[in-house]
Amino acid sequence: MSRIPAPPTLPKPKSLSKINDAATAEHDALLRRVWRNVDAIFATIFSKKRTDFDSSVQYEISSYLSEAANAAERARKLACDEDVPEACRREAAAFGDRLSSVTDQFVPPPTDELFEVRVDARALAAPLIERKTVAGNERETHVGFVDVECEVSIPSRIKLDPNLPLAFSSSSAYALWSAWEFGTGFSSDELAKGPEAPYWKMEHDRADVWIDVRITPLPLGQLMRELKTLRGYGDRETLVFVAMPFIDAETEMFLKAENFFPITAEWLTKLGFA
Fold first, then answer.
1. What does pTM read for this prediction?
2. What is the distance in angstroms between the CA of the first residue and the CA of the last residue of the chain?
3. CA-to-CA distance for 122 and 239, rounded, in angstroms?
4. Where are the domains of the chain?
5. What is the DSSP string of 118-141?
6. Are residues 126 and 146 in contact, defined by beta-carbon separation less than 8 angstroms?
7. CATH 3.30.200.20 fits 18-47+117-154+204-270, yes or no
8. Fewer CB in 10 Å around end: N or C, the chain?
9. Burial class (CB in 10 A: 0-12, 13-18, 19+), 64
């Protein structure tokens, strides 16, 4: 288990202390197993089905087609602007015609990689820091370790980038003359190669996750107090997982009710995580 200070109201455990627990071969084996499979563990726990995003995908495609139609109209207006050089007017007219024929078949499907849960950072024996403000000065004290710390990115919102020239991509009343004046909106070469396919982007929710590996069984009350003490050293959003060889159904229920997330050796074996 992680090295954390004992809650002040608790006596020192009569069996293995927290430090001695972390020094056992059983703890080492479970810790190594969790570390080896951390990507697969979080991919399983936080995974979302592609079908969960179906309505968003359809909405984004519909919005893109509307944006393409608006862009085509702006291109046709540019083609009629006598203040714009003839070459650019000609290309704008052709660009608008091509955009007018765009359908949902022009939109590539989202790739599988977009929906993957990512572990962006991980650390073994990450320091636990207690921060206190004394006389207006913030002090940091190293009070222990957490067995595994991870930063996890979880897919949350899919977006379709229209990938249109700037002057045509904004739904607001973009001043075409200013784009032409400053050369920031488009070029005749850009218009000549026609509209490029839009592309998908995924926004992610970020989760800070701690995994506390434990071997020695504890009474439920003591287990809860120690886990809450551990969580108190994190941010309010920190997620705390507890990994143990075995957790009975009732204890698992209490853990989940207090927003702790159990991982057992049996669960790892069932999912094929060696």
1. 0.77
2. 20
3. 14
4. 18-47+117-154+204-270, 52-110+164-197
5. EEEEEEEEEEEEEEEEETTEEEEE
6. yes
7. no
8. C
9. buried
Q: What is the pLDDT of residues 39-58, one digit of tens each?
A: 999 999 999 889 999 999 99
| Alpha helices, H only, the chain | 18-22, 25-36, 38-46, 54-79, 86-100, 166-169, 176-182, 188-192, 220-231, 249-257, 265-270
* pLDDT of 174: 43
Q: What is the pLDDT of residue 94?
A: 83
- The pLDDT confidence band at residue 191, using thresholds 50, 70 and 90, is low
**159-177 residue pLDDT tens:** 999 887 766 655 434 444 4
Largest CA distance in the chain: 90
Q: What are phi and psi of 136, to 5 degrees?
A: 85, -5
SS3 219: coil
